[in-house]
Amino acid sequence: MCGIAGIVRYDRPGSEGAMAVRQMLERQRHRGPDDADVHVRSFAVLGNVRLSFLDRNGGAQPMSDVTGRWWITYNGEIYNYRQLRKQLEGVWEFQSETDTEVVLAAIATWGLEALPCFNGMFSFFVWDEYTQTGLAARDRLGVKPFAYARQDGAFLFASEAKALLPALNGLPKADFHAVLEYLVAPYFSGVERAMFSGVEYLQPGHWLRIERGGIEIRPWWDWTQIKNLETDSVQATRWLANLAPESVRRVLVGDHPCATFMSGGLDSTLLAAVAAPLQAGPMTAYTIRFAGQEDFDYPNSRIVSSDDTPHARLAAETLGLDLHLVNVPREGLASDLAALAAINDALPAWEQELAQHHLSRAVSRTHRAVLVGDAADETHYGYPFLLDEEATRSPRGILERFGVAPIARNACADAVAMFDDQYRALAEMGGYSWETPLDRLLATTYLVVKRWLPRLLHNGDIHTMAFSVEARVPFADITLLALAARLHPNLAIHNGGEKCLLRQAVRGLVPEPIRLRRKSALPKDQGTSAVYRIEATRAVRESHDFLATWLDLGPIERLLASDRTFTENERSLLFRIVALHHWRHAFHVSPP
Fold it and tell me: Secondary structure of the chain: what % helix, strand, coil (to 5)?
């Protein structure tokens, strides 16, 4: 796992960009504490900071072939790299034991046809010195990031958007539309557009080619549910019971053991149940713990339905895990909020990022890799709001369910309607509609996979890699994704329950109370009202004009003047306001 960076410019020697690339790498050193290097080619400079898992001595990057024609800077893990290597050994002279070189060999040999062969998570840039062209690509779901910018004839790229800022002209400006989306639909934001004006993201499942004539970007994969969806629950359960555990085994590669984030839910317990017997000694598991968590108001929570702790303890006892409870002191909440905004350059979108932050820091003390259950709910119908007809009647239903910030009319006359139209158009381009109940489920799932999931994966990557930890995502396995796209929603959603097929498939593998436990998201602290009131009041005062670019601050100031405990959606709103304030100061961002 690594951080990548580079510059391509055809009007001057590549050597002139070397210092800028080194600055970009320094901003990402947390992604690769083991090694750092920069290589200059004719019109390209490639850089890499490395967190090594395979062939520590032979896997230095940027990496080239024996002829010096092909060069790569790569971030990710390809879990089927050994099988691909066997296919390439007759045409490629391998110099290392890494998956990096397999990716390079595959691209050099097979071109774009190599991309569907990669089972794993990746973003990379390959430079062909002979043709003086570059190719970038990103994995199907967007587990690994790729940010880029075009400036004065130069193409710049990095793993994190904030790494590009030192190389851009002047102080960064906020992207008006991206921040507006963050305030209206935070869980969909930061995917299509970066928060910094002039910075872009290569979309999940896309490739980018750069040559003297310009830049071409095309999709190479999309989430497509076939028309004749599988309805045989017995057959589907059998397939899923085989593929889900195999996807977990596949990610257990490298020279370091994996820990796991343990919520005591279906997904995290399944990961531990499969991985624990394959580890040397008890598998280490980490569970977040907030003060008073056992007394939180779970019945009225939108997405966190129960306390994780007893379920995590049951999983640990049953599976023989070494369980660590990560206690989050509320006294440090104010400084934590500032830290989150400095780490997450796409703006912290969920209060649960506080839990991700503390979990990542805790696991970094003992491990370099951690298993996470991301992509399970999004591809196997795991969210309770899919059972809510109002939430799935249109994109607007989801936005309103989770709360929308009060937007100034001079910023946007009707932001909810605008984004409702935008998300509806995205789904329709994918071939989905909201005409029937089945259509609505499929269309909502498409939006979740295209927007919610990449945002979730971004947050997971940015917080774990901030502490030099690699998050591995077994549910992003390509065989498991292919199966999920074939399954009829009625196999997963029926009798008032979600993710029913996966629950059936893991019968006997996880403890029965956990198998039947209702979906509950990563916990967020419900005792934050007092701190949020202080921090949001300060944010409104110190960043008033900046916030007023998008927000109607009147309702927010009245909310802060009240002395009552905030609702869940009100806490979420204040969290975003504080995050926007800290983000502005952390990166010296000016208004658009």
Answer: 45, 20, 35
